[in-house]
Each structure stands twice: as structure tokens, then as C-alpha cells.
Amino acid sequence: MKTYFARDALLARGWARDVRIAVDEHGAIAEVRQRSSAAGAETLAGPVLPGMANLHSHAFQRAMAGLAEVRGSYHDDFWSWRELMYRFVARLTPGQAQAIATHLYIEMLRHGYTAVAEFHYVHHDPAERPYAERAEMLLRHLAAAREAGIAVTLLPSLYRWSGFGARPLQARQRRFSADAAAVLDMARQARAAAAGDPDVVVGVAPHSLRAADPESLAALVAGIRAEDPRAPVHIHAAEQTKEVEDCLAWSGNRPVEWLLAHMPVDARWCIVHATHMTAAEIEGLAKSGAVAGLCPSTEANLGDGVFPLTEYRDAGGRWGIGGDSHVSRDPAEELRLLEYAQRLRHRRRNIVVTAAQPAVGTTLWLEAAAGGAQALGRAMGAIAPGRRADLVVLDGEAPDLAGRAGDAIANVLVFSGTRGLVRDVMVGGRWVVRRGRHPRAEESAAAFRRTLARLRG
To answer: Of 213, 304, 324, 390, which one is the catalytic site residue?
Structure first.
């Protein structure tokens, strides 16, 4: 048992003073005591918050950041960006995927993410052949997570079709091809490789309704439920208006509407993006208990639209944040963008609050941490007994935090725009970042640079 003392700690009900946190030998929080003394405990170097979950990651896209910011046509949007992504991924090797993911996961840790959901769909080699070990690329992400020290939820993706109505895959999509049986087999391989590791969870990710026909989707969900009833299920839905229009033409339903009517959507599901919903869909998704997976920096980068967060929260909906294409690796930035988009939409300030909690930064962090934990199927998201000891310690000597306490700490973290406020990061009881440094940062950055040189060449 190790014990830590924090002058300020963000607990599930808000900020508390003089908090002792006991962590057991398995990496779980055993006890949390408020208004305690520091005697016999390691004093943390600043305020402490629960680690944040990144609930949506396509790790390889980190290597594309900044490459798609030159207009190719007047109608540049998600669909034109996707063509660049196809060209980029065509040459990606397993070693390169691992190098990119390791560097990315270290970047995440240094900003306060302690777990990631890897939504992975590159299943074949560049010649479109299955790897000798079917889950080769997926397992490279497990290896990257272990190298970095981040907890991971692995989500092999079902990707059968190029569009609604079971349209055959295009040539540039064939690396992604996988039916329900293949995805379930990859999930089994990943569970075997994880070997009971408490910091690894395995679920599945039907890519989208345009890529997964109803029969395949039903078979995948039934299959994973039979093998692991707690496994997370993640799916992209309603990210772009064209997707909504095509879904209506195919089925007469909108994407979220179709999922709620035809699939057993519940608290184990994460509907990624869900940007374009009607009032009925908002109400239905909130009542289902599923998590809405919001990716503010990517959704803004791609021009997708703005999620109806106020209406969704008013309906009791749960949500979390993801990095998606990783144009940002900072949870504070994602939360700031999320709040600012709502302010622009409603033309007023301080949107994400509750009657009991009027501080925006505190509310954003607590709600995103809780929703992300649910989406990842991981006991995290709060500094409380029974949760994994995922702790983010801020730099108590940082000028922006001088004289700050309680809610002012979270507000500074999210809204000051200052980088480098995260000092120490713990994942499952292990320190993986100390004084802002990760022990493998330089090595991984060098491998990332070499990978970029090859891919961009």
C-alpha cells in the first residue's frame, strides 16, 4: 500500500482539501480521506485530478496532422480529407503503425490522458493480404500502449462495405476488410495477448452503418456478447450530413434512429460523433445509457458540425472526449473547444455547468472523465475507492496556478491556454510521467521522425 497526499484533489463531487489517497499493490485506489494530514504520505507536487480517457483513437492518423490544411477544391470536407487518408495509409507497415502509436500515446500521457480506446481498422498488408497473424496490426497497438504505459481498450473494426446497401469495397479500402467472424477472432487474439492485464480491455467496433450491413452488425454484437457480456461496442454515426442523407435513402431512418430501433444499444455502447441528430434521437440516445463520443478538435478540423450538447445533457445523456485524428493530443484543449463551440452556437457564456456545480472547467473534466471511463469499460474516471489509480498531478509551481484553489484550478487548466501544466501522471498505480518527462519520449520521438520521413517520402 502506498499513500499520497494532495492539498487539492478533484473528487467525484468536486474539489476537496488535504486529501490522502491510498493505492493498493494491484494499482487500485483503496481509500480516500479528506481533511487529513500529510504525515507518512508522499506529498504530490500540485493539485490532482482523475486521469482522462481518450475514447476514440485512430492512432496512425497522428502522422497526418497538418498535411491536409491546403485546399484541394472549393468543397473540401470530410470526404475529400478521406481521400488523402486512403493514400497515406496505403503504405503503412506494422512497425510504422507501432512507432506512430507509441509516440502518440506518450504525448497523450504527458497531457493527462491515462487510457485510450483504439478503434482499429487497418487489417491487411499493403498488398491487401491478411497478415500471418490476423490481429498483427491490432497487437502492434497493444505493444505500443505497453511501451508507453497507457491503459488501452482495443476495438478491432468490422468493415465490409464502401457504402449503404452493401456496396463493394473500393480498391483503396481493401486493407480494412473484415467480417464479423474475423473481428471476433482478432478480439480473441487480443484477449489472449493481454493475459488478464487489468489495464487492457477488448471490445469491438463496427465501423459505421455504411460499412456494416445489418446482418453482419447483429452477428458481431451477438458474438461479442456471448464471449464477454461487458465488452464495449463503439460505432461511428451521424458524423456528416451526407451520411445522414444516404442512411435515410437506404433505410428511411437516420443513423442514430436506426441504431436505437434495430440494435441493443445500452450503457456498453459508444456512439462516436452523433453530431447530426433530431430531438427524438437526442432523447433516445440519452435514455439508452450509451456514451456519445465527442471529438471536438477533429470535428472542427473536418468541418463536421457541432454536437447538440446542451439538449443532450438536459436529457441526461453521458458523453466523453476522443482525439480521433489527433490534430490535438490534449484533453484540456478538447474540452475548451467543446465549450467554445456551444458558446458560439448559443451566443452566451459558461454553458456546461449544473445547478450544483457552476464552474465550467470542473464540470467538463468530471463529466468527460466519467463518460470516458464508461465507454472504455475501465474502472477509472474518479478518485474513489475501487477505481484504478489513474492520477494527473498539475505543477503546483506553475505561474497560472499561483494562489488558485478548487474550481479555479480546473478553470485555469481548461481555459488559460497554457501548455505544460501537467507535471506527473500515474496509470494503474505506476508513475509513467514525472516532472513532465516520460522515460521513452526521446526514443519514441526519434522513431516517429524516421517513420514520417518514410511515409511522407
So the answer is: 324
Question: Rounded CA gap, 376 and 396, in Å?
Answer: 30
Beta strands in 146-297 (DSSP E): 151-158, 200-202, 205-206, 233-237, 269-273, 291-294
Q: Are 247 and 209 in contact (CB under 8 A)?
A: yes
- Which of 111, 141, 234, 273 is catalytic? The answer is 273
What is the reported pLDDT for 242?
A: 95
What residue has cell string 483503396? 172
CB 109 within 8 A of CB 440: no
Condensed to tens digits (0 to 9), the pLDDT of residues 234-290 reads: 999 999 999 999 999 999 999 999 999 999 999 999 999 999 999 999 999 999 999
Q: Are residues 353 and 363 in contact, defined by beta-carbon separation less than 8 angstroms?
A: yes
Is the whole model's pTM more than 0.90, yes or no? Answer: yes
Query: What's the Cα-to-Cα distance from 114 to each of 199, 273, 430, 432, rounded to whole Å?
Result: 10, 21, 11, 9
307-309-313-317 Cα dihedral, nearest 10 degrees: 20
Complete domains list, the chain, with CATH? 2-49+390-441 (2.30.40.10), 51-376 (3.20.20.140)
C-alpha 375/C-alpha 318 separation (Å) is 10
User: Is residue 273 annotated as part of the catalytic site, yes or no?
Assistant: yes
Place of cell 508513475: 431
Query: Using an 8 Å Cβ cutoff, are 88 and 67 in contact?
Result: yes
Kindly state the average pLDDT of the residues 205-226. 98
Closest CA relative to residue 54, chosen from 108, 3, 132? 108
- Give the count of beta carbons closer than 10 Å to the beta carbon of residue 427: 25
Angle between helices 331-346 and 360-376 in degrees, nearest 10: 120
Residue 330 appears among annotated catalytic residues: no
